[in-house]
Specification:
The complex is a heterodimer of chains A (154) and B (133). Helix content of chain A is 60%, strand content 0%. By secondary structure, chain A is an all-alpha fold. The N and C termini of chain A lie far apart (73 Å). The radius of gyration of chain A is 19 Å and the shape is elongated. Chain B has one domain (2-131). Chain B has helices at residues 2-6, 10-26, 34-56, 61-82, 97-100; strands spanning 89-94, 103-107, 126-131. The mean pLDDT of chain B is 93. The chains are: A mainly alpha (154), B alpha+beta (133). The structure holds copper (II) ion. Copper (II) ion is lined by residues 53, 57, 63, 67 of chain B.
Chain lengths: 154, 133
């Protein structure tokens, strides 16, 4: 057997072996009373855009795509989810103080405005998470108005 | 930290962010009354996150400034509740940041040194309030 072939076989063997190392799934199956959707009565298109583009990494419920059953993709996703949730968790949004909710709304606004989120590799695989300029404007206006109204009532 | 931003110095701002974060974490709240503790914890919880992000984002001054904007609001509230520590301070306003929505910052000098626009427009802004003893 040539060296090239040996190396190739080794890669295949490793690839197959790692398929058995599966990270725990992030799927609670329930919508908490502290969920963004329950705390605010956002227009349906605002909520659905956030759910569609952000909840996979920033909530307790990820919709796992087909490729997430293939390692090492699932590891990359698990890492995004744990880092993403540490910064922002839509499922527990209501358990933040009002002050923090205002900050988070502004951070979300900034990330969308600067096109930092969703992260590029995710957009590559999720066409529907690529926000159009109209969708961005809609989100930004709603986020700004909501942050302002919380600031006033606080 | 503010002075690092006026010079567009992202790494200095990051260092200041880490220092401020540590200061919030290590602050001994025992000297405060129960009511004061509540207010302090509310503000500090938020402020230390902004300080953390400023500390973690050396190299991305635009993102650091976004957090500096929110942090400045916390600092203003903190001063309003707990005083200025005997030093006259100025609450300044930059009308151009945030696409014309504007942003505040706290300064120890009467002279305007804009931390949001930095070297591009160092003297943009006005004193909105003088915070005396
Ligand atoms: Cu940040």
């Amino acid at each position: 057997m040539s060296l090239k072939k040996k190396i190739l076989l080794l890669f295949v063997a490793v690839f197959l072996a790692i398929q058995f190392i599966i990270p725990a799934h992030n799927k609670s199956g329930q919508v908490l009373p502290t969920d963004f959707a329950k705390v605010f009565t956002a227009p349906a298109n605002v909520q659905s855009t956030l759910q569609n583009a952000c909840y996979d990494c920033h909530s307790n419920n990820t919709n796992y795509p087909w490729y997430s059953n293939i390692q090492p993709m699932a590891w990359v996703m698990a890492r995004h989810i744990s880092k993403g949730k540490a910064k922002l968790n839509f499922s527990g949004f209501g358990s933040n103080t009002t002050r923090k909710q205002i900050s988070k709304l502004k951070e979300i606004l900034n990330q969308i405005k600067d096109s930092e989120m969703p992260i590029p590799s995710y957009k590559l695989m999720h066409k529907s998470a690529r926000l159009s300029q109209d969708e961005k404007t809609l989100l930004i206006n709603w986020l700004q108005a909501t942050a302002d109204s919380l600031s006033v009532s606080n | 930290m503010k002075n690092a931003f006026t010079k567009d110095n992202t790494s200095e701002a990051a260092t200041a962010g880490k220092t401020l974060q540590a200061a919030f974490i290590n602050f001994d709240t025992k000297t405060l009354s129960a009511q004061q503790q509540k207010i302090f914890t509310d503000i500090a919880d938020d402020a230390k996150e902004h300080a953390e992000h400023i500390g973690a984002n050396g190299g991305n001054i635009a993102h650091q400034r976004e957090h500096f904007d929110m942090l400045s609001k916390d600092m203003a509230d903190l001063i309003q509740t707990f005083g200025n520590g005997g030093q006259t301070l100025y609450k300044d306003f930059c009308p151009m940041y945030n696409k014309g929505k504007g942003a505040y910052w706290i300064s120890e000098t009467k002279e305007i040194k804009n931390p949001y626009l930095g070297k591009a427009m160092p003297t943009c802004g006005t004193v909105k309030e003088e915070i005396k003893q």
